[in-house]
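Something for you to look into today, if you have time. I want to see for myself how the chain folds. Leave the record below and I will have a look.
***
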Amino acid sequence: MSVAGKRLLLVVPSATSFLTFLTGVAEEWRRLGGAVAVATGPDLRGHRCEAGGPGAWPKGIERLPLPEFRVGSPLALIRAAGSLRDHVRAWRPDIVHAHFSAAIFLAALVRTFAGNPPLVWMGTFHGLHGSAGTGLRSGITAAVERWSARRMTQVCVLNAEDRAALQLRIGGVPVHLHASCGVGCDLDRFDASRFSVAERLAARHAVGLSAETFVLIFLGRQTAFKGFDAAVRGYRRLRNAGVDAALAIVGSADGVHGSGLTALERRDLDRDPHVVRTGWQWDVSPWLAIADTCLLPSVREGMPVSLMESLAMGVPVITVDSRGCRDVVRDGVDGFVLPSTAPEGIANAVLKLATDRPLLESMRAAAVAGRGRFDRRLYAAEQIAIYAHPRGHGRTQAS
């Protein structure tokens, strides 16, 4: 399949996810002569795309609205599937490519109940939900993900664990493991040399932080599965031990997933003068520029972009031994990969960096030296090659 004149429909749960991760692929497809539309749910709360702003919708890419479906209610999913079916019929794509589990499920519903239209149906799991937990809910989620994957003509994953979890359970559907480091990040933006020492100090002072304070940053949605509660508890241990530490929380709460903090912990966090809350930021590089280390003790990732962004900026990372995280962070080289989310382990790892300046500088240098592996252009080029030569095209629908 050549690219010129071909029509690509991306299906993404929110405009925020598309703009954060996938614009490079869409723009490269257009550059090569293809047409692109994006079927997407509403912007996430507080993440509105504004014309002319940093979150502006790219020109030449059509946006096809879907009703909210991230909440996972049956009625919301049925409504969104009906809307996506109408978009597929009207826009007439050659390839439908859904990203994230909820969107892949929508695409699977449309393919199943719209008579299996003869298109390339692709799904990229940015971290399987069902394989990262135990219990009834995880079991149901895993079954839904497998059902959805069986109805694609090709599936893509970002880490080896997800490939192993899928490829023996979804029949003959090809499973592609991206050779790139996930979707990567924008190395031009996440470049520490953009910020002078004076600019970093001024940015710290602007939010009440001194040059001596050891600044931790949590970058992402404030959810328990991303380790937000563990990061906060690790930070509190440091403060209680008399360490001059501050915590920058860059991102927003999630209306679907809880933070894991108790009501008392949330109150104490809100009252802590050493905590800086920025809310959602389209460009997090200025906040990484004032950070000494990044905390993301996440247990459910595909290939975490926030960790790539941190390391690309020369900010060492403290994470846990979970899929994706251990693929990005090199333990003892540019951060620490801990065995668990125990707050005392997080606090001890931070203390090592805060009290050993040569170790901190060594990890910073190693992070910058290895940043080339995160170049998002590697992912875009690989994805375009997959579109041009899809596997499994024309296979019959799985049962």
Residues 394-399 have pLDDT under 50 and may be disordered. The chain has two domains: 7-184+377-388, 192-374.
